[in-house]
Every structure is written in C-alpha cells, then in structure tokens.
C-alpha cells in the first residue's frame, strides 16, 4: 500500500479516491489493448479531463481548479502504483511538464486560448527538446526558427517525444539565433495541424507500451511570432526553472512504482514455497526485503520534504536532482531484486513484476539521465 503521509490534507484523500476509481474504471478495462496498440484511446483524455485529472494547477480563471502541486502528486502516485505507467506518463507530460511552461511563460492570450482546452483534454500537449543528434546536451539542438516578417519558419527534427502521435500542440525548443551560445534558443508553440509538421513512427519501446513516443519533423513550418513562449533567447533559463518540477514528478512516479513492485513481491514470497517452506521465511529473503523497505521509507520521507518545498515554491535544482537520481537508481535496484524473488515467473510477461521491471528502466534516462543528475548535484559541492 502507498504509505499514509501527513503532508496530505483530507481534500487530497478524497481526490485520491477519485483517481483510484478512475484507474479501475477507465484504465484497467482497456489497458491490455492499449499496451498492444502502443497508444491509448483519445477518449481517455476527455475522460481524464472530465474527472479533473488534467492540469490541476491551472487557476479557475482558465478553467482549472487552481490546486496545489500535491494534487498532481496524488494523480502520479495512484496511477503509477496501479501499474499503468504508459497512460500515467501521457497525463504527466501534459499536466506536470507542459502545463508548467504555459503557466509560467504564457502570454495572457496564450493562457486564455490553451489552458482551458488542456484542462478538458481537448488539446493534448507535448514538449520537444530531444533530437536524433542530441539529448543530454541541449545546446546541440539544430532545429531552427528564423524570423520572416511576422512569422517564424521552423525546420528540424525531434525524437522520443512523449504524446508525439496524439498531441495537438507542441512546445518546441529551437534555435532562434544563428550564433552559438545559451541565448540562441527559444520555446515556440507549434499547432500540429500546421502545414509542414509531420509525425514519424510511434517508436517501439522496452516499456511504457501504451504511451505514444515518436519522431517529429518540421519542414518550413510557419507560425506567427505570437506563438513564442516567453522571451526570445531565454529557453535555457526557462528549461532550468521548469525542469525541477519535471524531476520531482519522475521521482514520484518512480517511488510509487517501486512501492508496487515491493508490495506484490511481499505477497508472492509468502505463497511460493521451496525446500518445504515459503521463500519469504528464508533469512536471505527477509533481510533483502527489509533493506528494500528501509529504502522505500527513506525515499518517501525525502519526497515529502521536496513536495513541501515545491508547494512553497522553494524546491531547488539540487534537491530535485537528488530526488530523481537517488529514487530512480534505488527503484532500479529494487525492481531487479523483486523480480529475482519471482524466479522464472518474473521473466514472464504475464506476471506484473515483469512489466514493472521494464517500465522502470527509462526513469533513469528521461528528464535527464542519472549522469546528468550527478553533474547538476556536483555543481552545489
Ligand atoms: C520513453 C521516452 C520518453 C521521452 N520523452 C521525451 C519528451 O517528451 N521530450 C523530449 O524532449 N525528450 C524525451 N525523451 C528523451 C530523453 O529526455 C533523452 O533520451 C535523455 O535526455 C537522454 O538523451 P539521449 O537519449 O540523447 O542520450 P545521450 O545524451 O546521447 O547520452 C548517452 C549516454 O551518455 C551519458 N552522458 C551524456 N552526457 C554526459 C556527461 N556530461 N557526463 C557523463 N555522461 C554523460 C548519458 O548519461 C547517457 O548514459 C524521452 C525518452 C524516452 C526514452
């Protein structure tokens, strides 16, 4: 079970029940099909919007509920604990990542136009930083947007973009100056029905099968200068300020999923017998599970510290990077050990632990790899 934590108020507990019911009624019946199809139904988004699960931070003036980030955390915890990484990742990129950029940097007109539609699920949002030639080092981005009168003309290519097949709106990280330097990049909103925008393949992944992840191509895509998000040349600073929330988000995903792997393993070792007794009675099993339980307890405690700071607007890049680094690495070790307790059954796709193992791997990669987290933490030494 997810631990009970004092960081949450009674209103979060009520909301948690709603999310849990949504997972049981609106994801569970379709999940196997979505995993096989490599994508969720579009109606999943509308249902998520109608249930209040999209973009909780959006103020009432733009159609939202103006909640604090703990509501985002409740959605993350429940959907990842339920084992629905793909559909959960879809919502998370939209609500926890893209929405933050519009809230922080959107003009009044952009907020009025996009936020109500993002809250309802009518508009699905993606963010495109990564390119085939560069991921960790965003200064290697080649996609460019050059001014032509009142328009930007965008050319380039992106890859690994979450919600890539289904999105209607993409926040594109692009060069807007010919010279090198951190002031050369900007964020530009691109509607996916613009001429010259093309989606590539829905990529075949190790895990998160129901989440669509894809390539994108921009061939002379023209957008009005009004689609610039924030100030021209400020993309790197904008990314730096928003990435802390993304990293906290991934740490929460990871911890909830680790808790699930741990819980189903505890159940399994009580039932499975070898040498005349449950494998859970063996000292090796008890000691290893005790270590994992301690890891989880430490993880939840640090997450709550970070959550409290974030709600107050005080989470810094170092703490967010520590949370992502330590929790996702711990999760990797934990889910590997849990799978080991299932023996050969752990390797079988029909066992949930097998999917949890596969789904865990990317958490150490996306949103900044563990190595990049170490770089960021080391800057505070
Ligand atoms: C399922 C999935 C969803 C994703 N969703 C999105 C999305 O929605 N939008 C988006 O823009 N991107 C997305 N990504 C991309 C993701 O953020 C990148 O894959 C990630 O940042 C790593 O970049 P890369 O793959 O180019 O690896 P590289 O940058 O090529 O890194 C390769 C290896 O080199 C290491 N390395 C790099 N630099 C250093 C260094 N300075 N010191 C030590 N080691 C280093 C890395 O840690 C890694 O181990 C997604 C990726 C996946 C797999």
Q: Strands of the largest sheet, in order across it? A: 1-4-5-8
Low-pLDDT stretches: none
- Number of domain units: 3
User: What is the highest CATH level, the class of the largest domain?
Assistant: Mainly Alpha
Hetero compounds: flavin-adenine dinucleotide
Principal-axes geometry comes out as globular
Class inferred from helices and paired strands: alpha+beta
**How many helices does DSSP assign?**
11
Describe the structure.
There is one protein chain. With 381 residues, this protein is an alpha+beta fold. The chain contains eleven helices and ten strands. The longest helix is centred in the middle third of the chain and has 37 residues, at 235-271. Flavin-adenine dinucleotide is lined by residues 93, 126-130, 135-136, 160-162, 205, 208, 213, 362, 365-366, 368-369, 371-372, 375.
Concise description?
The chain is built from 11 helices and 10 strands.
Describe how the helices and strands are arranged.
Blueprint: H1 10-27, H2 31-37, H3 42-50, H4 69-81, H5 85-105, H6 108-120, E1 125-128, E2 144-148, E3 151-162, E4 169-175, E5 185-191, E6 197-202, E7 213-224, E8 228-229, H7 235-271, E9 273-274, E10 277-278, H8 283-311, H9 317-341, H10 352-360, H11 370-378
Helix pairs in contact: 1-4, 4-5, 4-7, 5-6, 5-7, 7-8, 7-9, 7-10, 8-9, 9-10, 9-11
Bound molecules: flavin-adenine dinucleotide.
Keywords:
381 residues, alpha+beta, Butyryl-Coa Dehydrogenase, subunit A, domain 1, Butyryl-CoA Dehydrogenase, subunit A, domain 2, Butyryl-CoA Dehydrogenase, subunit A, domain 3, 3 domains, 4-stranded mixed β-sheet, 4-stranded antiparallel β-sheet, 11 helices, 10 strands, binds flavin-adenine dinucleotide
